[in-house]
Amino acid sequence: MKIEHIAMYVTDLERAKDFFVKYFGASSNEGYHNPKTDFRSYFLSFDDGARLEIMHKPQLADDTEELARTGYIHIAFSVGSKERVDALTEQLKTDGYEVVSGPRTTGDGYYESCILGIEGNQIEIIV
After folding, report:
1. What does pTM read for this prediction?
2. Using CA atoms, how far apart are residues 44 and 58, in angstroms rounded to an integer?
3. The domain spanning residue 106 has which CATH number?
4. Which of 41, 69, 73, 80 could serve as a FRET partner for 119 with CA atoms 20 to 30 Å apart?
C-alpha cells in the first residue's frame, strides 16, 4: 500500500502552484475546474512519483493555525544533501519565507530545516 496523494486547500491557487514548482521542482497538470461549484485544483507531481493536490473553492474557512496543534502539521521534502538543504533554506529565507528551525541535525538524526511556506504551511527540507 502507498499514499496516492496528499491534498491541501489554499486561498491563492496559482501562487501555491508556482511556489511548489519553483522551490521543489513540481510538475503541474493543466488543472481542473468545476463550474457548478467553482472548485479548482492542480495535481503537482514530484520526481519520485509523490503527488500533492492543491485545491481552492469560494468561501473557505481560514482559521488561525498554531504551529503546535493536532492534525496534519507539515510536509517534508528530501533534497538529497546537506548542501542542498542549506541552499534551499537560504533561498527561501532570502525570498521572504520564515525559517522556523535549522538547518540542523535533530535528535533523531535528520539534517533538516523547517520553513513556513505558502500560506503559512510548515515545510521540512531534509537530506
Report:
1. 0.90
2. 21
3. 3.10.180.10
4. 80
